[in-house]
Structure formats: C-alpha cells, structure tokens
Amino acid sequence: MERFMAMLSRNKNKDPPPTKLLDLAGQLCQDLQSSSPHLEKLVEAILGCKHKIYFLTNIHIVRACVFVHIRNRQHDTACRLLEYCKAEEKEELVRLWHEIHYQRVMEKHHTDFLTPLQKYRCRKRNPPPVSLCPEGSKSRNYSDEVRQRLHRFAAEVTTNPNKKQRERLAQDVNLQPNQVYNWFANYRRRQKS
C-alpha cells in the first residue's frame, strides 16, 4: 500500500500514469477486498487523483470503488462511477449495476436478501444505461413474426395444441416445444381474463 501511495505521488502529473502503477492498483484492490479500512483508503486515493479515468479501466478497481460506495450507502455515486468508467468487461459492469440497485431495495425494505421475483422487478425498474449495455437490454419477447404465427395458429387451429402440433409449430418458429407450450398456456389465461 505504501509503495502504491509513493508511486502515485511521484507520478501524479504523468498523463497517462505508468502501466506499472495501474497494475499495482488493480492487484491491491483484489488483495484488499476483505480489509475494509485499507480498501477505503486506496479507493479514496484513486478517486482523488486527477487521472482516475485511467484507473477506472481496470475491472478490479471499478469493483472495489463500487463496493466501497455501496458500503457507505452512496448508491447514486456508485451508479455514476459505473456510467463514467471505461472498463471493457460490460457484463460484469451490468452485474455491478444490478447489485447496487439490489442493495438499495434491501436497505429500503430492511431485509438481508431479495427473492428472484424482487430481483427481476428491480432489474426491470432500473435498466442499465446505454453506456454499459450498448446493444440495449435483452428483450424476453418473441419477434412480431413469431407472435403473429402463434396467434394465427391459435385463431385458425386451436388454443390447446397437442404435443405433436406443439413440436411442429416449435420447429416452424424456431422455438423450444416447452416455449410454445408456455405461450399457449399464457394465451389461454389472458383470454379468460
């Protein structure tokens, strides 16, 4: 830790900072995960330097910063940091985004865990920003063409297809038979209400 602080002080005006310094910061963030006071001091030093954008390209540093912000109940700051960082591991950044929002909901409801449904609702209410998820959030809906084919089958043939019909239809629309089964079960349920 002292070595890092000395290197940071020596290289505070270098743009960009030496790779050796960035690597050391990433390694320290990994090593200090369980040591809260030291990790907090390290994160404070990294975020306090004028070249912090270079440090925020390392996923270990980003994870440590988010962890410290969550622990200090600075959820908005953690979210802004994720939007601002330039780390390449987008899936990990999205996972951290969701973790921030899970923590926020747990604090609001004074609970230590969330059910899968609560997590799902939390993700729906707080989708990751475009900077983290450039292709957009994944849609769980079928394409218009697939939905039209399924609706047409329900209107013209039956709303309760047998196994053979489901398998043929699944092959035609490029779905799994159980997806077709569930779609028709949901369709019948919607028709009743």
Summarize the structure.
With 193 residues, this protein is mainly alpha-helical. The protein folds into two domains: 1-132; 144-192, Arc Repressor Mutant, subunit A (Orthogonal Bundle).
Please explain how this structure is put together.
The structure is a single chain. The protein is an all-alpha fold and 193 residues long. It folds into 2 domains: 1-132; 144-192, Arc Repressor Mutant, subunit A (Orthogonal Bundle), CATH 1.10.10.60. 68% of the residues lie in helices and 0% in strands. It is built from 11 helices and no strands. Helix 3 (36-48) packs across helix 5. It is elongated, with a radius of gyration of 24 Å. The N and C termini lie far apart (63 Å).
Order of helices and strands: HHHHHHHHHHH
| Largest pleated sheet | none
Determine the oligomeric state from the structure.
Answer: single chain
Mean pLDDT: 88
Distance between the termini: 63 Å
| Tally of DSSP helical segments | 11
Structural class: mainly alpha
Helix content percent band: 55-70%
Counting structural domains, the number is 2
